[in-house]
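Project standup — Tuesday

K.O.: blocked on the structure for the chain from last sprint. Re-posting the sequence here as requested.
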Amino acid sequence: MKFSANLGFLWTESSLPDAVRAAASAGFDAVECHWPYDTPPEQLRQALADTGLTMLGLNTSRGNPDAGDNGLAALSGRVEEARQSIDAAIAYADAVGIPNVHVMAGFAAGEEAHTTFVSNLQYACVMAAARHITILIEPLNHYDAPGYFLNTTTQALDIMDAVAADNLKLMFDCYHVQLMEGDLSHRLSELLPRIGHIQFASVPDRGAPDHGEINYDHVFRLIDELGYAAPLGAEYKPGGDTDSTLGWLRGYR
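H.V.: unblocked you, prediction finished:
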């Protein structure tokens, strides 16, 4: 198995370039992040070149978190801002060589939000295709993100069908899917052709994958047997020093 360190949660006490180097030293095969925009692209690109790692993905801007924003793409009154955030994410990804951009929906509900999200995703897919970038959407659970527009894989598939773009894929986070839907083995088997990235964390505490209600030995083995070869994203909260939580990774090595 190959693993990617999500630097939105891991080594957050370090600068993003230093976190990349820490992930390489720990034995990760790749990295990913949430919002890298305060780091000049050339600095991140240099850290990736120094370590030989690939950065797999980043998120569009949340908007204004102080005002409660958690993405903009499903907000009917903020289409211009949403598309500016899409443009900025694609430009940053292109500058660094990042293949995936997660477009965050935000807090919204109803048919108008659905129509707005579909329209903004169609725009994102067109803009991303010109730079050979894949757009991802991710269902979030309603415990951690109450009111978030996208909650389930079924809803995500409906949106993907409406957008009808080859470069739109599902970000399948085992943590979120387990909390909202369960049945990870069947869902992974059925949805794999439409999945662009897989992430994981323990349930229910979102810690390292060596405890909790999900048997990740089974899940990782199934993913391998299904033929998925890309690095799996370790998007968990270490609750302190990241290095002290990496026993699970050493076990797989």
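K.O.: great, moving the ticket to review. The chain has a mean pLDDT of 97. The longest helix spans residues 111-129.
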